[in-house]
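hey can u check if this looks right to u? its 189 residues, i copy pasted from the old doc so theres a chance i mangled smth
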Amino acid sequence: MLKKPYLMIVLMLMLVQTACASTTATSAPTSNEVKPVDECPAATADLKLLKNTEAGYCLLYPEDYSADPQNFIVINPITGPGDMPGEAWMFIQVEAANGRTSAQVADAAIEPLGTGFNITKSELLIDEAQAVVVDGLPGQDSNRMIFLVSNDKLYTLTFAPWYPNANDPTALENLYTTIIQTLHFLPPA
Protein backbone atom coordinates (compact mmCIF):
# COMPACT_ATOMS: atom_id res chain seq x y z
CA MET A 1 0.00 0.00 0.00
CA LEU A 2 1.29 3.46 -0.94
CA LYS A 3 1.82 6.04 1.74
CA LYS A 4 0.36 9.55 1.39
CA PRO A 5 3.62 11.29 0.28
CA TYR A 6 4.15 8.79 -2.55
CA LEU A 7 0.52 8.97 -3.60
CA MET A 8 0.74 12.78 -3.74
CA ILE A 9 3.89 12.62 -5.91
CA VAL A 10 2.26 10.16 -8.31
CA LEU A 11 -0.87 12.33 -8.56
CA MET A 12 1.21 15.46 -9.18
CA LEU A 13 3.21 13.72 -11.92
CA MET A 14 -0.04 12.65 -13.59
CA LEU A 15 -1.35 16.23 -13.45
CA VAL A 16 1.90 17.60 -14.94
CA GLN A 17 1.81 15.02 -17.76
CA THR A 18 -1.82 15.89 -18.53
CA ALA A 19 -1.05 19.62 -18.58
CA CYS A 20 1.97 19.10 -20.86
CA ALA A 21 0.00 16.90 -23.22
CA SER A 22 -2.78 19.46 -23.64
CA THR A 23 -0.24 22.27 -24.18
CA THR A 24 1.53 20.27 -26.89
CA ALA A 25 -1.73 19.48 -28.67
CA THR A 26 -2.72 23.15 -28.92
CA SER A 27 0.67 24.63 -29.78
CA ALA A 28 1.08 26.71 -32.93
CA PRO A 29 2.05 24.79 -36.06
CA THR A 30 5.68 24.89 -37.08
CA SER A 31 7.06 25.33 -40.58
CA ASN A 32 8.17 21.67 -40.59
CA GLU A 33 4.63 20.33 -40.28
CA VAL A 34 3.02 18.73 -43.32
CA LYS A 35 0.31 20.85 -44.93
CA PRO A 36 -3.18 19.38 -45.32
CA VAL A 37 -3.58 17.35 -48.51
CA ASP A 38 -6.18 19.73 -49.94
CA GLU A 39 -4.12 22.89 -49.44
CA CYS A 40 -2.91 24.61 -52.60
CA PRO A 41 0.23 26.74 -52.73
CA ALA A 42 -0.36 30.40 -51.89
CA ALA A 43 -0.33 33.00 -54.64
CA THR A 44 2.30 35.72 -54.39
CA ALA A 45 2.81 39.15 -55.95
CA ASP A 46 4.51 37.46 -58.93
CA LEU A 47 2.60 34.16 -59.12
CA LYS A 48 -1.11 33.48 -59.64
CA LEU A 49 -2.99 30.38 -58.48
CA LEU A 50 -4.70 28.10 -60.99
CA LYS A 51 -7.01 25.63 -59.24
CA ASN A 52 -9.05 23.01 -61.07
CA THR A 53 -10.98 21.05 -58.44
CA GLU A 54 -12.79 18.93 -61.06
CA ALA A 55 -9.47 17.73 -62.51
CA GLY A 56 -7.91 17.51 -59.04
CA TYR A 57 -4.94 19.87 -59.17
CA CYS A 58 -3.70 23.36 -58.41
CA LEU A 59 -0.49 25.18 -59.29
CA LEU A 60 1.15 28.57 -59.51
CA TYR A 61 2.16 30.35 -62.71
CA PRO A 62 3.76 33.74 -63.44
CA GLU A 63 1.40 36.69 -63.19
CA ASP A 64 2.31 38.02 -66.65
CA TYR A 65 0.98 34.89 -68.40
CA SER A 66 -2.64 34.08 -69.07
CA ALA A 67 -4.54 30.99 -67.96
CA ASP A 68 -7.33 29.60 -70.08
CA PRO A 69 -10.16 27.57 -68.59
CA GLN A 70 -9.25 24.79 -71.04
CA ASN A 71 -6.08 24.02 -69.03
CA PHE A 72 -3.69 26.23 -71.02
CA ILE A 73 -1.17 28.64 -69.58
CA VAL A 74 0.03 30.90 -72.38
CA ILE A 75 3.11 33.10 -72.62
CA ASN A 76 2.47 36.30 -74.64
CA PRO A 77 -1.01 35.28 -75.82
CA ILE A 78 -2.07 36.09 -79.38
CA THR A 79 -5.52 37.66 -79.53
CA GLY A 80 -5.97 37.47 -83.32
CA PRO A 81 -7.04 34.49 -85.40
CA GLY A 82 -4.63 31.62 -85.92
CA ASP A 83 -3.75 28.19 -84.65
CA MET A 84 -1.13 29.34 -82.11
CA PRO A 85 -2.35 30.45 -78.66
CA GLY A 86 0.80 32.50 -78.03
CA GLU A 87 4.57 32.53 -78.06
CA ALA A 88 4.73 29.38 -75.91
CA TRP A 89 2.34 27.44 -73.72
CA MET A 90 1.73 24.65 -71.28
CA PHE A 91 -1.30 22.39 -71.64
CA ILE A 92 -2.63 19.97 -69.00
CA GLN A 93 -4.71 17.02 -70.15
CA VAL A 94 -6.44 14.90 -67.48
CA GLU A 95 -8.03 11.50 -68.03
CA ALA A 96 -8.65 8.27 -66.15
CA ALA A 97 -5.45 6.32 -65.57
CA ASN A 98 -7.32 3.00 -65.63
CA GLY A 99 -4.63 1.36 -63.49
CA ARG A 100 -1.73 2.46 -65.71
CA THR A 101 1.45 3.92 -64.28
CA SER A 102 3.19 7.01 -65.64
CA ALA A 103 6.02 4.80 -66.94
CA GLN A 104 3.57 2.56 -68.82
CA VAL A 105 1.92 5.59 -70.46
CA ALA A 106 5.28 7.10 -71.46
CA ASP A 107 6.48 3.79 -72.90
CA ALA A 108 3.23 3.43 -74.87
CA ALA A 109 3.79 6.90 -76.40
CA ILE A 110 7.41 6.12 -77.36
CA GLU A 111 7.26 2.46 -78.47
CA PRO A 112 5.28 2.80 -81.74
CA LEU A 113 7.79 5.36 -83.07
CA GLY A 114 10.64 2.86 -83.31
CA THR A 115 14.18 4.10 -83.83
CA GLY A 116 15.41 7.22 -85.58
CA PHE A 117 14.12 9.80 -83.13
CA ASN A 118 16.23 11.47 -80.46
CA ILE A 119 13.79 10.76 -77.62
CA THR A 120 15.00 11.02 -74.03
CA LYS A 121 13.18 9.84 -70.94
CA SER A 122 13.83 10.63 -67.27
CA GLU A 123 11.97 10.34 -63.98
CA LEU A 124 10.92 13.05 -61.58
CA LEU A 125 8.92 13.24 -58.34
CA ILE A 126 6.10 15.82 -58.37
CA ASP A 127 4.00 16.27 -55.22
CA GLU A 128 4.95 12.73 -54.15
CA ALA A 129 3.81 11.26 -57.50
CA GLN A 130 6.27 9.51 -59.83
CA ALA A 131 6.45 11.37 -63.15
CA VAL A 132 8.15 10.54 -66.44
CA VAL A 133 9.60 13.40 -68.49
CA VAL A 134 9.84 12.75 -72.25
CA ASP A 135 11.67 15.06 -74.67
CA GLY A 136 11.75 14.66 -78.44
CA LEU A 137 8.36 13.11 -79.24
CA PRO A 138 7.44 14.17 -82.77
CA GLY A 139 4.67 16.72 -83.09
CA GLN A 140 3.70 20.04 -84.63
CA ASP A 141 6.21 21.74 -82.34
CA SER A 142 9.17 20.56 -80.32
CA ASN A 143 7.75 19.70 -76.90
CA ARG A 144 8.43 18.34 -73.44
CA MET A 145 5.80 16.01 -72.05
CA ILE A 146 5.37 14.96 -68.44
CA PHE A 147 3.24 11.91 -67.67
CA LEU A 148 2.14 11.30 -64.09
CA VAL A 149 -0.58 9.48 -62.21
CA SER A 150 -2.24 10.64 -58.99
CA ASN A 151 -5.55 9.45 -57.53
CA ASP A 152 -5.98 7.16 -60.57
CA LYS A 153 -5.94 10.17 -62.91
CA LEU A 154 -3.39 10.48 -65.68
CA TYR A 155 -1.99 13.99 -66.00
CA THR A 156 -0.16 14.83 -69.23
CA LEU A 157 1.60 18.19 -69.19
CA THR A 158 2.85 19.42 -72.56
CA PHE A 159 5.26 22.35 -72.82
CA ALA A 160 5.70 23.73 -76.36
CA PRO A 161 7.60 24.81 -78.31
CA TRP A 162 10.43 23.28 -76.26
CA TYR A 163 13.88 24.53 -77.27
CA PRO A 164 15.98 24.23 -74.11
CA ASN A 165 19.09 26.37 -73.89
CA ALA A 166 21.14 25.94 -70.72
CA ASN A 167 23.00 29.24 -71.25
CA ASP A 168 19.86 31.37 -71.67
CA PRO A 169 16.73 29.81 -70.12
CA THR A 170 13.56 30.72 -71.95
CA ALA A 171 10.31 31.90 -70.42
CA LEU A 172 8.87 28.44 -71.09
CA GLU A 173 11.65 26.76 -69.11
CA ASN A 174 10.96 29.16 -66.23
CA LEU A 175 7.26 28.31 -66.45
CA TYR A 176 8.18 24.61 -66.42
CA THR A 177 10.25 25.04 -63.25
CA THR A 178 7.48 27.01 -61.50
CA ILE A 179 4.81 24.46 -62.35
CA ILE A 180 6.91 21.43 -61.39
CA GLN A 181 7.73 23.03 -58.03
CA THR A 182 4.15 24.10 -57.23
CA LEU A 183 1.87 21.47 -58.81
CA HIS A 184 -0.27 19.94 -56.09
CA PHE A 185 -2.89 17.21 -56.39
CA LEU A 186 -6.17 17.60 -54.55
CA PRO A 187 -7.80 14.65 -52.80
CA PRO A 188 -10.57 12.88 -54.73
CA ALA A 189 -13.94 14.56 -54.32
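The domain at 47-185 is CATH 3.40.1000.10 (Protein Transport Mog1p; Chain A).
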